[in-house]
Amino acid sequence: MEYPLNVTFKLFTLAPQIIVTDANQETVCFVKQKMFRLKEAINVFSDKKRQNPLCEIKADRIIDFSAKYTFTDNSGESFGAVRRKGMRSIWKAHYELMDENDQIFGVINEENPWSKVADSFFGEIPVLGAFSGYVFHPKYVLKNQSDQVIIRLSKLPAFFEGKYKIEKHLDMDPVDELRSLMGFLMMILLESRRG
User: Fold this and answer.
1) 75-116 residue pLDDT tens
2) How far, in Å, CA of 134 to CA of 128, rounded?
3) Phi and psi for 48 in degrees, rounded to 5?
4) In which region does residue 78 sit, left (phi positive, over 0), alpha (psi from -120 to 50) or beta (all else)?
5) Which residues contact 116 (CB under 8 A, 6 or more apart)?
6) d(Cα 1, Cα 28) in Å, to the nearest integer?
7) pLDDT for residue 38 is more than 70
8) Rounded to whole angstroms, how far apart are CA atoms 60 and 104?
9) CB 148 within 8 A of CB 172
């Protein structure tokens, strides 16, 4: 993948959709969430036409604050998971990214929780709230066990959609890279519900 990656999240659709493109504007993946499911089930494709499945993300339980979302490839093999840390995520987003053996690969944290609070508050103000996507921009980082930043996700100015940029700070193998990307995409879906 050629970094930085650009993530576009459609806000006003029945079933949430995310499109990820690389620095050359080539599609990296297309995410389509299944509607009306008690347990989360998200399909990830390598193309916008949804002809080439890349992987699937499934929750381990019905709607829960601390659910674990497992990433499986086309053969059904797990290559990782992400889990929101319940009470720790109330104030500041905190997710554990795990490898295929359920060992912690890294932790995704919000860099500045005040930015998200201000973004949510400003978004509720009549008329001015329509411009909230241009004012405050939360950032999230994936850190390894040595507390080094591996990847940073930044919200970008956008009108009627969510736009993000993903920058890589450390080299990874392709499986770790895909696992990290899936962790961030699941986090975007979950955090967008919180505001």
Assistant:
1) 999 999 999 876 554 557 889 999 999 999 999 998 876 566
2) 11
3) -70, -25
4) beta
5) 93, 110, 136, 138, 191, 195
6) 7
7) no
8) 17
9) no
Query: What percentage of the chain's residues is helix, strand, coil (to nearest 5)?
Result: 20, 40, 40
* Residue 43 three-state SS: strand
Of 115, 162, 152, the residue nearest 13 (C-alpha): 162
d(CA 60, CA 68) in angstroms, rounded, equals 6
Among 29-38, 62-71, 169-178, the range scoring the smallest mean pLDDT is 29-38
Total residue count of the chain as it appears in this document: 195
To the nearest 10°, the Cα dihedral for 145, 146, 147, 150?
A: -80
| Strand 104-110, strand 5-10: pairing | unpaired
Q: CB neighbours of 191 closer than 8 A, spacing ≥ 6?
A: 93, 116
